[in-house]
Please model this.
Amino acid sequence: MISPDIICDAVTKSFGATQAVSEFSATLKAGHTTALVGPSGCGKSTILRMIAGLETPERGEVLVGDEAPDAVARRGALAMSFQDPSLLPWRSVSANIALGAELARKPADQVDHLIDLVGLSGFADHRPAALSGGMRQRAAIARSLISKPEVLLLDEPFGAVDAITRRRLNVDLPPLWRARGTTVVLVTHSVEEALLLSDRVIVLSSRPASVVADIAVDAPGPRDSAFLDTPAVQDHARALYSALEGR
Amino acid sequence: MIGVNLWRKLLAAGALLLLWEGAVALSSDAVLISSPSDIAGYLSENFALIARASVETSRNAFWGFLWGNAAAIVLSATMLVLPRSERFLLALALLVFCVPLIASGPILRVLYGPGTGPQVTLAALAVYYTTLLALLVGLRAVSQNWIDLMRVYGRGPLATLMRVRARASLPYLFVGLQISAPAAFLGAMIGEFTGAERGLGVLTLRAMRGLETDATWSLALLSAAIAMTGYGALGWLGRRAVGYAPEILLSAPRQDADQTWWRSLGQTLLIVACVVAVWQLTMDAFDLNRFFAKRPGDVWGFLIVAENRDTLVAALAQTLGSALPGYLAGLSLGAGLAALLILWPGLAQATLPFAVALRAIPIITTAPLLVLGFGRGLAGTTVVVAVMIFFPTLVACQQGLRQTPGQVADLFRSYGAGRFVFLCKAQIPAMLPAFFASARMAVPAALLAVTTVEWLATGKGVGVLMATTSSTSNYNMLWSCVAALAGVAAAAYALVAALERAILRVYASEQLT
Ligand SMILES: Nc1ncnc2c1ncn2[C@@H]1O[C@H](COP(=O)(O)OP(=O)(O)O)[C@@H](O)[C@H]1O
Ligand SMILES: [Mg+2]
Model:
């Protein structure tokens, strides 16, 4: 599988009088994970939704490889995990996860494996109403992974997940998409999570979003909890915090 | 455990029957009340006749149920595909729903001639609007996120409709169907009141006019039982198919609050023009006999004669005068009891299932009993109208009262506020939208009840005017009555809606959507 680059070329989007994104440009390299961090309401979700083809930019252009986002979507090569898990209430956890494969017209052969991986074993037959917010979010992540997408968009995927599980998922999940060579765009509020998961972190200013810092995370070593304690990564963290505060 | 429970219930039912029997035996009013043994006697003596009539009415109700619900599904699908048509179609659907069935009955009889056409059509008319509202609520219950999810995988509107919208509105469809079952039966019976040859409605009319107490009681109870069986069966089917029943208030969607008065007026005129055009065109298209099938022009020509107009206006005033006390009594008793019950939550929990079940009984089928008991004057009419409105209002208000979110209750509790303060400051404002929704839906219900009672028993008002004009072949008067009733119902509905907007703007502005 060859994943595409994602090219945002001076995209601008406003909702009525609210300018959400203004002239945002970036090339997100194929097979890399890029994190977007920035204050609430600065336009991160809007950027992600434009990459997914859910919003059309007013000006500028988003290209995935050499295709428009909705063409990639029609191939079933795109998946997104939303800020709100949005599971279908009438489907069980496993059927909700399988939906990702059904909609992308891919085989649903990894349901059990993914349920284990996100720590939902024993809940496969439960309805979403019987799960906690964090558990629902984990099911939604599994749903986005099952179709083996070329482009994976994660909008605050672990926001409602408890701290311990979150740390474990931060370490356990990335090898999955790294091995597949997936191009990942991640929105998060956690600097540690951004560093742990990404090859590159883009810090955005408050609305309308513009890039205030762009840091490559090229520290060596396995990406586990110890990774955050290495001096190179701590330098990155300091740089990120000062970019976020000095906006 | 189930066995023990069942035995208890049977024992209780048996005790109740004995009590009833004893009370009738001791009472002096034996002319008005039948005992269980009288009813059993009447039913067994006339078994073959009643069985045939039951099958006939149930069959008409069944076909009306199918047609009416199919129409509701088609209408809601149209509104989904063409969102701009929604407002217009809903207003039109409401206007048609506002015409009391007992008024459309004679007209349909004239148009169809003999046969089951009017009964089936009335049954369909009785159900389509509530199912339509339930379906619209269901189709709107789809979260934008689910639609986004479909688009992220490149799936179009068709896949969204099949996989998400249809499935998400299924529970609401079943709620609509469940409420439809007794309503369809009611529609079929009213169709039979207005000149059929067979059916429970015909027998009821005969029993009423002949003052046969046992027959009236037996037929009323049997009709209610059949209607409730349909309600129960569809509820069971819905729980099997969906697994849960959503709690929905069948409120017609409100118009936009920013609607200017001249736009509303324009819209109203457009709808009236459309109705008149459809009226004229269907008559011409089917080339209906001018003697029975009056055109808008005929009604106009008839009503500009002062004498005719005065007769109609006098009858209308009589009808509205009988409807108003019952309407107000039903609404205030329903809302008041809901508020009282909420102060004793245990009691509310225990009564809600009964209220929900009783809401489903087509009260009109028991109207003959109420008229027997309370007389043919204003008291009898008021009771029928009030009872007709009471149960839906009670259920809606109880549901509305429980809409107050848990956090708000906790907030009040954390300030040590008592139950009464909480009721006044949080729960009643939360109940207002549900109350007004039922006040609006009660307008056509009240008019239906009052005209039916007039037709059956009291010998006054528009109901009886229609009953006599259809037998004296004064078809101009019949059509004028129907047009006037539709106009009055729509105007009263609009009045309640305007009152609702004004009050909600002050007391619950956040709930104006
Ligand atoms: N559908 C919408 N309609 C109107 N305003 C919107 C819509 N979506 C986002 N916005 C506005 O655009 C801005 C950016 O939103 P969003 O991209 O969701 O921010 P973030 O995800 O960074 O918190 C916010 O001010 C938000 O209110
Ligand atoms: Mg966001």
Notes: DSSP finds 20 helices and no strands in chain B.
